[in-house]
Design a protein that fits this description.
Length: 280
């Protein structure tokens, strides 16, 4: 794990200077001070390394957004929490975000596209959860509102990451986006996107982290890495719950409380909450 993290850290420095395409495995290994053989023990290819970056970036952001939104004590706060947490995450991870958004159009990789589609569907789930707590003028416009919210996100992220517009006040940006979204929710009456045509936006990609087997594999890796005994034991018990057909949601929720503050456990906790429909 230490070597993997070293490769990611050093590769990011090179990617920031010269981009994905212009950076070779040889340059990465030279910058790390390791052999090519050591690189290939950690990553099968440069593409796999890039996907690891995307996984790390998106898992952290989505887990943070989902947790923050569902932790809101009042539904009125969900929208502002969503916009604030999303933009703060991109701001905090601006180095990789800038590289990725500038270069993703040049990186054609089926595995990468599948991962991006998967994470996009997770964002859709969170936004639809928020929309279900808004007062809409016409309930049939909810999927149009989903697209509009995602449009706001993309346009403003482009301004900050691609055009490098300074993000001087995150609170004002959040209030502005909330105001625009509420106007659309209140006054939009003509739907264009139906539930049926929006289904493609909600479909998850096959072979993702959603099934119990893959969540268990993630837990087993965490058990090896984590030293805190309470968290390690909680992960063991969560693994047993996933392997059993009869589970107590109260027990699972309590175990999730034990691991929720560990950054390494955020993604597993998110996947388990989703699997069992457990609210914060």
């Amino acid at each position: 794990m230490v070597k993997k993290q070293l490769i990611m850290d050093k590769a990011l420095e090179l990617f920031a200077k010269q981009g994905f395409e212009a950076t070779s495995v040889q340059q990465i290994t030279d910058h790390c001070g390791i052999s090519k053989g050591a690189f290939y023990l950690s990553y099968k290819s440069k593409d796999e390394l890039i996907i690891s970056f995307v996984d790390c970036f998106m898992k952290q952001i989505i887990a943070d957004i989902d947790s923050s939104v569902k932790d809101c004590s009042h539904s009125d706060d969900m929208l502002s929490t969503f916009f604030y947490t999303t933009n703060k995450a991109f701001q905090d991870n601006s180095t990789f975000a800038k590289i990725f958004f500038k270069e993703q159009t040049h990186t054609v990789n089926e595995n990468l596209l599948n991962r991006l589609s998967y994470y996009d569907s997770k964002v859709n789930d969170i936004i639809l959860y928020i929309i279900d707590h808004l007062v809409l003028e016409n309930e049939k416009t909810k999927f149009d509102l989903l697209i509009c919210i995602k449009g706001f996100m993309k346009v403003y992220v482009d301004l900050f990451l691609i055009y490098e517009l300074p993000l001087l006040d995150l609170d004002i940006l959040t209030k502005s986006l909330v105001e625009k979204t509420n106007i659309l929710a209140k006054y939009s009456t003509i739907p264009f996107i139906t539930k049926e045509s929006a289904q493609i936006l909600q479909d998850h990609i096959e072979g993702t982290d959603n099934n119990s087997k893959q969540i268990i594999e993630l837990i087993e890796q965490l058990i090896i890495e984590i030293e805190e005994p309470i968290e390690k034991e909680s992960l063991e018990l969560l693994k047993n719950c996933l392997q059993s057909e009869n589970n107590s949601l109260a027990i699972i929720k309590g175990l999730l409380e034990n691991i929720k503050n560990n950054p390494q456990c955020k993604w597993v906790a998110y996947l388990i909450r989703e699997k069992y429909s457990i609210q914060q």
